[in-house]
């Protein structure tokens, strides 16, 4: 035993680098200092614990802040050290109890050594307690900072925009979303509601809402973000360093950045917004559509004005108790109408009217409001300044005068874009461009800019625009202060007598359209007048002989749909007239020969008038660019006048043909030949009664294949040249063919189809599919309609189709096709129908399958599917035709309509599809459909189900939770 202990001492001495004698001496030293080392260790521990208590007291004092990570680590180390000290104290007490045992000298020495070492550790830990970064720091940024704002759940006009954005947020591929619309439409309210939205909170680690404002800078936006993230900036960090700090912080989390009131585009990378792949998103709201494109928005949401119902509800909420008076309600409805659906304006007006506590004050307030902005009203001038800024920010006087011109038209009424362009050109707003097509292009560019800043808005019919009431009032006020642009605009006011003479004298532009005028002044001093709009005064039968004497500067004269029977002798005074509209003046039987005095006339429209022959003098109008007429204007007995061919400058020609009037083949051939001689023609709208007449034109005129040539051809007997399918396109399609009441195929039709964008086939016989015309000839189609074609059994026959068909087709409508069995026969090549967004099937009684094998996979862009009166349809998506379907099939389908399908049993098999974009379901007269293809987790964007309540009660549900969820979307009929 003695040898073993000696050996152990020798080994330890060797490890310690000492001699055995020195090692033993050190051990004896530790044993002698046993009590000293214990007391020093406990003293050091007390000092450390006191420092720890001070730190914790500071933490408790600043509960609204978070503990620094350095401090948390130090407190933890103190806690560990405290446990170790307690263990050493316990061992010390045990040694004291056996102090008389000399044999324990060795263990006492070891314990003393450990206590000395622990004392040094405690000293270092105490020194480290002087924390470099402080005890506490600002707390981690809140997940969401809730903003005090009005709710929108009960206001569909606002809520739909939030829902649209939410739908986009759920899409992984969509990173940036732009919300745009005119000032006062509620964009900020929508953005604030997104900030507070519970679903948004679940989707992201942090929600950041920032108002950028007009006086923005990179530094200001960065400062707002760093404050929101509670980041500490070291010294005077520059923008690049701050961007890196923001990027590092955001790169570790899934965030949504809501940027409100963005005025100018900027690079998000300069701010520090990273391009990470962790499903983070950016949503920005702006008055300017193009800004959203400049900031690389993947999706745009256009903020519309409030509906009448929502506008009234908002007004009612803000006015409060005064709305309880039933006599006030009719006046309140008129007050709300003056606010044009703008939440900003509703708020201002409600603040004024909530102080009015009786009907007299309300009626007087309404009258004042109707006169605004000609009189000052509390709070309203602020709104006007908001709107006026958009006008003043327009670059170029041409855009400003084009906007002001819109005030001639009634508020919230459709304005036909082509007509507006012609008026702008006639007024000289379009840089005096010589070619009509160039002027239209320039006009569309200006129109785009006006829509971009929300001074004009697109109407439901895409070829029209509108100006709302508030903006029109602003335009009228601005015009009143500009001597060259004074406007007398009183459309749709039920006027029976013309305005006073002094009003005519001071105006540069006059609009009295859509009134009940029976007469006009005998004379008027209108030397500055450039536009006179009198259309649709149906009781206006006569214009006084001297009426035009002082109107030498008149450039636009619109008399269409009036009851005039002749033009006055003073017509030749209009030597600067550029556009004359006489269409639908059915009582007008002739154009006077004096029309030759209108040497600057560019546009003449005489469609649907009683004029039976064009005076030869029309041929002398060398500036004529656009002529619209009816075939009857040629005169049944004198179609050989050659007037058309003599107008050598003609660029645009429209000839209406009454389908109820039969013209001899010789007459039609002659007119066609005459049209074919025009060498500057860029646009032709014409009805060819037979294919042979169309052939004469395309063989005689090489212009029709020119890249810039536009046409609307109608071949055969049909009711109208108008293509209704065009109303659904946001852009203008310019090469259209309507082919009706013929049979078989014809090489001329196939040749024209090679240049055609829109094709309507009506009541055609003896073809089995559109492929009969040569599928390769249909490669440029963007829209296609098939109606009343009894012999068609499929639309595309893959057996005669090229490798890829209908690559650019966006919209297809099939109506009344009694023999149709399928849309696509045979294999579907990749790329076919890849751009299709809308498919409508109506009254196809033999159709059994819509998506034949392989077709549905190509329809990744399909947004609207409507199937009606197809009585053999049992399944919309047939499982046997579409095995192994991808759950994300039809990823962009937003609306599904199924009406009058008595055998329909299933929409899709086995609840397989995700339906990621589906928003609206419209079901009627489908008694066999007893189950919907929805679960708790699919169709997350579904917001509306239109259905019959009796049918709903028959549905079978596997899960009541799904039933309850869908029931909340139902609109029962």
TrEMBL record:
Domain NB-ARC: 163-322
Lineage: superkingdom: Eukaryota
Signal peptide segment: none
All copies of domain Disease resistance protein winged helix, residue ranges: 408-475
Family note: Belongs to the disease resistance NB-LRR family.
PANTHER family for this protein: NB-ARC DOMAIN-CONTAINING PROTEIN, NB-ARC DOMAIN-CONTAINING PROTEIN-RELATED
Protein name: NB-ARC domain-containing protein
Organism annotation: Eucalyptus globulus (Tasmanian blue gum)
Upper lineage: Eukaryota, Viridiplantae, Streptophyta, Embryophyta, Tracheophyta
């Amino acid at each position: 035993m003695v040898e073993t202990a000696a050996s152990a001492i020798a080994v330890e001495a060797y490890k310690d680098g000492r001699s055995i004698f020195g090692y033993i001496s050190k051990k004896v030293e530790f044993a002698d200092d046993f009590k000293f080392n214990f007391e020093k260790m406990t003293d050091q521990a007390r000092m450390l614990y006191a420092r720890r208590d001070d730190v914790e007291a500071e933490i408790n004092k600043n509960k609204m802040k978070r503990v620094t990570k350095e401090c948390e680590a130090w407190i933890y180390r103190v806690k560990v050290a405290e446990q170790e000290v307690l263990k050493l104290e316990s061992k010390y007490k045990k040694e004291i109890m056996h102090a008389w045992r000399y044999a324990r000298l060795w263990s006492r020495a070891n314990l003393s050594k450990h206590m000395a070492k622990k004392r040094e550790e405690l000293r270092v830990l105490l020194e480290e307690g002087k924390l470099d970064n402080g005890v506490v720091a600002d707390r981690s940024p809140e997940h969401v900072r809730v903003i005090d704002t009005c709710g929108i759940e009960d206001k569909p006009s606002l809520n739909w925009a939030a829902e649209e954005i939410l739908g986009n947020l759920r899409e992984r591929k969509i990173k940036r979303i732009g919300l745009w619309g005119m000032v006062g439409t509620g964009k900020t309210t929508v953005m604030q509601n997104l900030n507070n939205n519970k679903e948004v909170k679940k989707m992201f680690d942090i929600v950041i809402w920032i108002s950028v404002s007009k006086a923005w800078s990179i530094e200001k936006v960065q400062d707002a973000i760093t404050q929101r993230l509670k980041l500490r900036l070291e010294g005077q960090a520059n923008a690049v360093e701050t961007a890196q700090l923001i990027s590092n912080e955001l790169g570790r989390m899934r965030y949504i950045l809501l940027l409100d009131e963005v005025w100018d585009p900027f690079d998000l990378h300069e701010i520090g917004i990273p391009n990470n792949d962790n499903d983070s998103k950016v949503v920005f709201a702006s008055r300017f559509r193009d800004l959203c494109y400049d900031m690389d928005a993947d999706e745009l949401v256009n903020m519309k004005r409030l509906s009448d119902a929502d506008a009234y509800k908002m007004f009612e909420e803000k006015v409060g108790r005064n709305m309880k008076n039933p006599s006030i309600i009719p006046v309140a409805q008129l007050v709300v109408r003056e606010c044009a659906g703008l939440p900003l304006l509703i708020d201002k007006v409600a603040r004024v009217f909530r102080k009015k506590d009786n009907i007299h004050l309300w009626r007087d307030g309404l009258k004042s409001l109707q006169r605004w902005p000609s009189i000052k009203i509390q709070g309203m001038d602020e709104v006007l300044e908001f709107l006026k800024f958009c006008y003043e920010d327009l670059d170029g006087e041409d855009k400003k005068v084009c906007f002001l011109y819109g005030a001639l038209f009634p508020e919230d009424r459709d304005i036909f874009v082509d007509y507006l362009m012609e008026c702008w050109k006639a007024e000289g707003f379009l840089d005096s461009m010589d070619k009509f097509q160039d002027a239209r292009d320039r006009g569309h560019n200006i129109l785009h800019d006006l829509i971009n800043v929300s001074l004009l808005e697109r109407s439901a019919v895409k070829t029209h625009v509108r100006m709302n009431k508030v903006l029109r009032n602003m335009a009228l006020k601005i015009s009143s202060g500009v001597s060259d642009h004074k406007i007398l605009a009183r459309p749709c006011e039920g006027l029976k007598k013309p305005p006073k003479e002094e009003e005519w004298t001071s105006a540069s532009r006059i609009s009295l359209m859509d009134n009940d005028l029976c007469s006009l002044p005998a004379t008027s001093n209108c030397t500055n007048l450039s536009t006179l709009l009198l259309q649709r005064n149906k009781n206006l039968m006569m214009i006084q002989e001297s009426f035009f004497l002082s109107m030498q500067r008149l450039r636009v004269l619109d008399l269409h749909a009036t009851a005039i029977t002749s033009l006055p002798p003073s017509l030749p005074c209009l030597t600067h007239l550029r556009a004359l509209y006489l269409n639908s003046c059915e009582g007008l039987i002739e154009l006077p020969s004096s029309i030759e005095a209108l040497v600057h006339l560019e546009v003449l429209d005489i469609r649907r008038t009683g004029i039976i022959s064009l005076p030869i003098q029309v041929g002398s109008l060398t500036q004529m660019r656009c002529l619209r007429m009816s075939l009857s204007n040629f005169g049944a007995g004198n179609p050989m006048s050659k007037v058309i061919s003599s107008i050598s400058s003609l660029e645009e020609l429209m000839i209406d043909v009454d389908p109820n009037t039969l013209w001899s083949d010789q007459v039609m051939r002659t007119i066609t030949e005459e049209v074919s001689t025009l060498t500057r023609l860029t646009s032709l709208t014409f009805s060819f009664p037979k294919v042979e007449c169309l052939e004469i034109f395309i063989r005689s005129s090489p212009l029709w294949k020119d890249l810039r040539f536009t046409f609307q051809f109608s071949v055969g007997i049909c009711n109208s040249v108008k293509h209704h399918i065009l109303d659904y396109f946001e852009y203008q399609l310019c090469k259209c063919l309507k082919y009706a009441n013929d049979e078989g195929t014809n090489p001329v039709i196939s040749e024209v189809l090679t240049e055609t964008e829109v094709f309507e086939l009506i009541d055609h016989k003896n073809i089995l599919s559109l492929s009969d015309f040569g599928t390769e000839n249909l490669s440029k189609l963007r829209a296609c309609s098939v109606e009343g074609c009894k012999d068609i059994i499929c639309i595309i026959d893959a057996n005669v189709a090229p490798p890829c068909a209908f690559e650019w087709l966006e919209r297809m409508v099939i109506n009344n096709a009694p023999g149709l069995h399928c849309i696509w026969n045979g294999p579907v090549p990749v790329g076919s129908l890849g751009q299709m967004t809308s498919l409508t099937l109506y009254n196809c009684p033999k159709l059994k399958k819509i998506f034949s094998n392989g077709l549905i996979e190509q329809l990744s862009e399909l947004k609207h599917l409507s199937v009606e009166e197809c009585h053999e349809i049992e399944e919309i998506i047939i499982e046997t035709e579409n095995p192994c379907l991808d759950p994300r099939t039809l990823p962009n389908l937003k609306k599904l309509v199924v009406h009058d399908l008595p055998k329909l049993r299933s929409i899709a098999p086995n609840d397989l599809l995700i339906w990621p974009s589906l928003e609206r379901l419209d079901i009627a007269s489908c008694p066999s459909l007893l189950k919907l293809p929805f679960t708790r987790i699919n169709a997350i964007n579904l917001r509306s189900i239109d259905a019959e309540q009796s049918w709903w009660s028959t549905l079978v549900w596997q899960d009541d939770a799904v039933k309850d969820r869908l029931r909340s979307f139902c609109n029962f009929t």
